[in-house]
Structures are given as structure tokens and as C-alpha cells.
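hiii, so i know i said id send this last week but things got crazy w the move. better late than never?? heres the sequnce for the chain we talked about at the cafe, plus the structure i predicted for it. fair warning i was half asleep when i ran it
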Amino acid sequence: MDECSSATSIRCGDLAAASTCVGSDFKVLSETGKPDAPVLEGNYQLLKLRSGLVLHATDATELQDLTTHVVHQPGLTISIFLLGRVRVRQGEEEHRLGTAESGAAHCYLLNRTRPDVFVRHSVRGMRVRKVNVTVSPDWIAAAIGDLPAQASLSHFIKNHQARTDWPASRRLVSLAEQVLQPDELDPALQPLYLESRAIEILFAALSSLGQDNAPAAERPLRASDRQRLQRALTLFEPKDGPSPSVDEVAREIGSSVSSLQRLFHAAYGTSIFEHVRAMRLKKARDALAADGVSVAEAARLAGYGNPANFATAFKRVYGVSPREARSKS
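okay and structure toks below
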């Protein structure tokens, strides 16, 4: 087992070294990117297991806004989010990954048939608890073989940027927790323990593709869809006063409400409501951090009439209270 990174205080240089487990050409695209700059506080591991699986386990808080770039190798990745959310871009497609609106754990399956750029946007104060398991096409071929009887899986792994998601089952949540908080074992048995959990996670994820009620893999958006999405995002951009309704935005861009909902889910893996709320919460967070506005004013910017409800939503997303975010400004 090769351990690429395991620390309680993670710096940019640690991320660069760890990235070799999954890809190449690591870069920091934001201003704060010195190798010794601390970026995470908590537990962070990237492990190459004996069988060729790559296991990534994070239970850490983002210490600053950070945008990173890496070229991921071909492979299939399952992500289980137990806490927190993150905005990423794979190739030209942007996604928001993380827990559901209710805070429930959520799973994502992402496929790459060729090397592709992966950009991650970190948000200061956000605590993320997640487990990723990545396998190469060769691993899948060796482990599963020909897939004529698994039409859905075969179709999925042949499509670049194929993506699907579903609510995490109790079993997947339990497996992720076992990875994040492993039992105390003989160090010689630790790799086998982690490998067994990683394979169970993969089995559950790949099995879901064969279920009739599993979400269909999403295709890259067409150019016309991306244009409509951009127009909708502009209309939903946080401004003083109430946001336009979904009906109003759909009419403005010449779409139905149901089509617009599907478009947002395909692009970001979230509902329109969740995405717009995230935009407004970010505006409030920026105002707290940069301008030191009051919590009541931040709540108004985020579209909340009740500061207590705002504080609850804010802490769920960023891992700190609005007052704590303001005190760090």
C-alpha cells in the first residue's frame, strides 16, 4: 500500500504530492497557493491499495478559498459525501457534489475514458467528510471481465463523463464511516481492511447501475443547453430583493419548468432551489468575510427573513456559524 498523504494539517505541497495517486499536472489556480500554505485541517488520506484501487478519505475543514487543477487519468470514481459540498469541473462540465438538501449522505459515480482536467473549488470554513474509491479501466476489466450481461454498466463505462447519483444507503454510509474511523488493527492488517471496504463500496455502486430505479447516466450538455443554463444563472444571480421565481426564469429563457429542473440536475446534480440557495449563501459568506456585515444583513442578502434559519443553513453548508465566519474576516 502506498500512502500519498495522511496528516492533520495539510498544505498545498501535500496536495501536490498526493495528486500523483490519481493524476498529474497539479496546479493551484487561486492566489493562495504557496507550497507551505495550510489549506486543510483534519484527516486527509490518498492511498494506493495493493490491488490497484485508489482510496481517498477526507474528514477536514477548508482553511481558505482554493481552486486546484489536476489531470485525472481514465477511471471510474465513486464518491460518498457524508458532510459538506464542493463545486468541481470535469473537462467542460461543472457539477456540485455533496450531501442532499436535507443533509442526508449522497453518492456520485463519475467515469472517464480518457485523461481529463479536474478543477476543484474549495470554500473556506466548509467541513467535508467523504470517501472516494477510484479504479482504472484495466482494473474493471480484470475484476469483472466482459460485460455483455451488464448492459447498463457496460454502457456507463464506455461513455466519457458519464455521471449518475443516488441517496447513500445505510450500508454505504456505514462503509464510509468505517474508512473514516477504522478500528484499531494490527498495522499489517490495515491495508487489507481498507481494501475490503473499498471493494464493498465499489460493489454497491456498480450494482446500483443495474437496478431499474437507478438514475440514468448523464451525458455532457449540448451547446444550446449550456446557453440556456447560463441565461438562467444570470437571472438567478443574487441581487437585493427577492429572487425571480422558477416559472418566471423558465418563461424568460423559453423553457418549461420541468426542463429547467432537469437541466440544473444534469449540470450540477442539484435542484434549482438548492443551487440558487447556494449562490445566495455564498454572497452572504463573502459579505461577512470581506465587509464584516451583521448576521442580520447577511441573512437578508441570502434571502432569509429569519436570522436563526439563516444561521442553521449557513453552518450546515460551511461548517461554521455566520458569527464565526465574520470573526475570521
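btw The first helix runs from residue 12 to 18. thought thatd interest u
miss u guys!!
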